[in-house]
Design a protein that fits this description.
Blueprint: H1 2-8, H2 21-33, H3 37-51, H4 54-63, H5 69-85, H6 89-105, H7 121-128, H8 138-141, H9 182-185, H10 189-253, H11 257-268, H12 275-287, H13 291-299, H14 309-321, H15 325-335, H16 343-361
Length: 362
């Protein structure tokens, strides 16, 4: 869904100043009705930009809602017709693509308050983007056309000759006009139509390539913003965990062992807890004498790495205190060669060995 939002966001931005999106849309419609199509294009483009601001895009990413979508689609309809009246078919075609992308987010076209002043919009859409499938807009279908200008301004007859410019004509007569080249004069109607289709396909492929590149750049920018935000959230989460561990340490040091154990346990059992957080919580549970919970937390660490022999020792003691003598002996045997032996370690070594001997003699 994010890629659809980014597609319709690729609009050439005019600075809208302090004028709101709805006001720009109304001003664009007023200029459109006055046949001031160049001014209408400027206002409608600015309206579309204002109706899809950075804040609204971010809101859509986080909430899945875009409240300005109906007005955005209305501005795109008027902008398409305005471009067409100015003979700017490529811009009109790109605007239709944005409308299609907006419809894929949430369809509003059928309910747009469209009037006869844009009655030619369906014909423009059918000509410039045959693959575009829009629902019927009853209000537009029943409206009386305000005027019926041609879809595009008249253009001189095009000559089909080897050139990079795409050829786009609605129909072609069997007999070529006198201005046509000798090459065209010798072509049949079917050959001419094939040439037209070829050049239209080439132009469309070029347009799609450019749109893909622009979309990829916008997606990369959005992904970078999201990565930064995620990093900020993760940093805050780590800060919160460390703060809770310090609070539990303070409670433990002041004799409030039950309260401290409760905090340690919630950290150790958190679904997204890091290895660092589980380690600190496991040590805290060991020091408060919550051996069963300590053993469970330290078990979540999996394989102990070299340098973590102290954790393996805490694990061994917790296992012994909860009755798992054999496993306690194995863990202690792995840890002892790397530990600086203290009186406490010697005492637990003796206890564990004595317990293992009693089990073996039974």
């Amino acid at each position: 869904m994010l890629s659809i939002l980014l597609t319709i966001a690729l609009m050439a931005a005019n600075q809208a100043g302090t004028v709101s999106g709805p006001d720009l849309l109304q001003r664009g419609k007023d200029n459109f009705r006055a046949a001031q199509y160049a001014h209408a294009v400027d206002d409608l483009r600015a309206a579309a930009e204002a109706l899809l601001s950075a804040e609204q895009k971010q809101s859509y990413v986080t909430t899945g809602k875009l409240d300005t979508l109906p007005q955005l689609e209305e501005s795109l309809v008027y902008l398409t017709v305005a471009y067409s009246k100015l003979g700017r078919e490529d811009d009109a075609r790109e605007t239709l693509a944005r409308l299609a992308a907006a419809e894929r987010i949430e369809s509003h076209y059928a309910a747009l308050p469209l009037t006869g002043e844009v009655a030619e919009f369906p014909a423009i859409a059918a000509q410039l983007s045959p693959a575009l499938q829009l629902p019927n807009n009853p209000q537009l279908a029943s409206a009386e056309p305000v005027s019926a200008p041609p879809v595009t301004s008249p253009a001189p007859a095009q000559t089909i000759a080897p050139s990079p410019a795409p050829v786009a004509t609605a129909s072609m007569t069997p007999a070529p006009p006198p201005a046509q080249s000798a090459e065209v004069a010798g072509m049949t109607r079917e050959e001419i139509m094939r040439e037209v289709e070829k050049r239209v396909a080439e132009a469309r492929a070029q347009w799609e390539k450019e749109m893909t590149q622009r979309l990829a750049a916008e997606r990369a920018s959005m992904q970078k913003e999201m990565d930064i935000r995620i990093a900020q959230i993760e940093s805050q989460a780590r800060h919160d965990v460390l703060g809770n561990i310090r609070r539990a340490d303070l409670l433990a040091n002041t004799g409030h062992l039950a309260d401290a154990s409760e905090i340690y346990l919630s950290i150790a059992n958190a679904t997204a807890a890091t290895r660092e957080a589980i380690t600190e919580a496991g040590i805290g549970l060991y020091r408060t004498g919550s051996y069963a919970d300590a053993a469970s937390a330290l078990r979540r660490l999996g394989t102990f790495a070299r340098g973590e022999e102290d954790l393996r020792y805490y694990y061994a003691v917790s296992l012994y205190e909860t009755g798992n003598v054999d496993e306690a002996g194995r863990q202690l045997a792995c840890a002892l060669p790397y530990l600086q032996v203290t009186d406490a370690i010697e005492r637990y070594e003796a206890k564990i060995e004595a317990a293992m001997s009693r089990q073996a003699s039974r």
